[in-house]
Amino acid sequence: MAAPAVLVATFVVGGGMATSLAQSLGLFPLVGPPSLTVAAYAAQASELPAGIGLSLAIAAASTLVACLVGFTAALVIVQGRWCGKLVAALGTLTIPVPHIIGAASMSLLLADSGLLARLFNTGGGWPELVGGPWWIAVVAEYGWKESAFVALVVTGTLATRAVSYDETAALLGAGRLRRLRHVLIPLSMPALAVCATIVFVYSLGSYEVAWLLGRAYPEPLPVMALQLFNSATLTARPEAAAVAMVTTTLSFGAVAAAFAYLRRSTLWR
Amino acid sequence: MNGTVTVEGLSKSFPGTSTPVLDDVNLSVEAGSCTALLGPSGAGKSTLLRAVSGLEVPDAGRVLVGGQDMAGVKPERRGMAMVQQRPLLFPHLNVLDNIAFAGTVRGVPKRTARVDAAEFLDLVQLEGFGRRQVTALSGGQAQRVAIARALAARPSVLLLDEPFSALDPELRSAMHALLAELRRRLNPTILMVTHDRSEAAVVAENIALFSGGRILQHSSVELMYSRPASLEASRLMGGANEIPGTVCNGSHHSALGVLPLPCDTAWPTGPGILLARQESIEVSAADGAGLQATISGLQGMGPRRLVTLDAAGVVLRAEVPWGRGLAVGENVTMHIPTSALAVVDDSDTAHLYADADERPSLTSRGRAALTGVGH
């Protein structure tokens, strides 16, 4: 029954990746005869290490924030009290907001001319949250948006069994913190690992938030790929494809690491 | 902590329900004893167990364990453990670590907790299963591990919420034997919820009979069967024979004639319904001594048969063993041992008693009726 969906997905993903790989290796040139070469990779060799490091750092920080906030929100939601319902409603409202709208909102909120700077009236002493060296606005946007996703997925996992296991642990003498450490976190780990992987891969590969809220240099990989792709020089397109392939390889690495972890987990088996 | 459990005036309602789940429940359970909370589904048994454990906060009343009021005491500090119908073994831990859980969360070094857990694993006859994943256990094995895990917490009170109801009959018998052995060796106070009369009688020495959020009767298993306190209690305990009549001078007068009542109880004079357990009625050939009756129905019940008898216009039921040929329409003699008889209030006629205020109230419903008439 899933065959049609698998076929379409394979065609789109596989076709796109094969085209990018071919273009990055000189096998799909816009002009001239095809020839196998790593020139596109070599042309960006000086920029890639900084781009890779920055992209991994942004993705890792965003994933960490999203998982911490999302897991905390899930615990509040699972309690089922009024604040849990409020958090669930806020999370549900956050999900459909596009990232580009979120990025624009973050800019209006966190920039040195933004709402918070005006509210606190710091007189020019407002930290560089937007376009600053620590990419805080970018991480904040990803953390905010993706935490809602994490919260709802983890809530779905915990809702069916968290209460009964929590009560069982309580009657075995476990206090609140012990239950969190020995029961709720372990039970949530598979769902958290899957969510973290999705958030990490998304943060690593999407460009619009980093492009809007980040600084001009160094560029994260997706911004670098986009700039190269939109470059007036048509010969830069293989370089854009090369950067995209590096990003894809990193994403596959993250997914492979996540599955390796999940395969070891008794809850996943 | 001493394992005596006392429940005083406990009431509990849930939002959206018109009647309380628990209504002024009073119960006292001695340390080291096993009491079955018996009753139909929705009677409030599990809610009482949860209130005792601290998982539910009662609207009124209090729970005392060893004389200490448990109000405001968190479940983890009550010295109790609970085993439910589902074993609820932690899926991320193996069998040994599940049993070692209580020690681990108490801060006992992991190695020590595991050594201790292995002893409890042996106790439930699952030695060698420690390294198994909980998903690799059968239902009976998982429930044994759940019991071992609860006992490893050294609870003064062990709460069992229909722990064996999902097991097949053979496995249930094995678990009953295991529970008896565990009681002999560890002697915790046990409160066990069940809706199975047979299980309650096998496992516990006392039964608290529930209906509609109230305790109808709390007594020994023997008294629960032989001296039900009300018609409702008798019916919930499976009693099938109710003969209306009058008590006079220690005997019950009815269409069956004059039947002497057990002399170990002072039976109040006046209208009363005679109860006779169907398991105690003996059926023999028509020429024997006893009450004459005609068989009007036969129904198989596994190792026994349920015989419906018509005696002087009174319909009675008796459980008799296989072996003797019986046929519908056959005339037989039946004998009801005096020790199998009891008399309870007829709640419809309780208000007729002239000396109602002096009579001991036999049922909560009877008390209410009498009080209403009295005022």
TrEMBL record, chain A:
**Top-rank lineage group of the source organism:** Bacteria
CDD domains in alphabetical order: TM_PBP2
TM segment ranges: 56-78, 183-205, 240-262
Which subcellular locations apply to this protein? Answer: Cell inner membrane; Cell membrane
* Gene3D superfamilies, per the entry: MetI-like
Which keywords fit this entry according to its UniProt record?
Answer: Cell inner membrane, Cell membrane, Membrane, Transmembrane, Transmembrane helix, Transport
Task: Please state every residue range assigned to the domain named ABC transmembrane type-1.
Answer: 52-256
- InterPro entries for the chain: MetI-like, MetI-like_sf
Query: What PROSITE patterns does the annotation carry?
Result: ABC_TM1
How is the protein disposed in the membrane?
Answer: Multi-pass membrane protein
Record-linked PANTHER family: INNER MEMBRANE ABC TRANSPORTER PERMEASE PROTEIN YDCV
What's the family?
Belongs to the binding-protein-dependent transport system permease family.
This protein is called what? ABC transporter permease subunit
Q: State the organism of origin.
A: Arthrobacter silviterrae
From TrEMBL, chain B:
Q: Domain (ABC transporter): give its ranges.
A: 5-237
Q: Which GO terms describe its molecular function?
A: ATP binding
Tell me, what's a Pfam family for it? ABC_tran
Q: Does the keyword Iron-sulfur apply?
A: no
Protein's name according to its UniProt entry: ABC transporter ATP-binding protein
Output the SUPFAM superfamilies linked to this UniProt entry. Answer: MOP-like, P-loop containing nucleoside triphosphate hydrolases
Q: Does the keyword Membrane apply?
A: yes
Which UniProt keywords are given for this protein, alphabetically ordered? Answer: ATP-binding, Cell membrane, Ion transport, Iron, Iron transport, Membrane, Nucleotide-binding, Transport
Its taxonomic path starts at:
Bacteria, Bacillati, Actinomycetota, Actinomycetes, Micrococcales
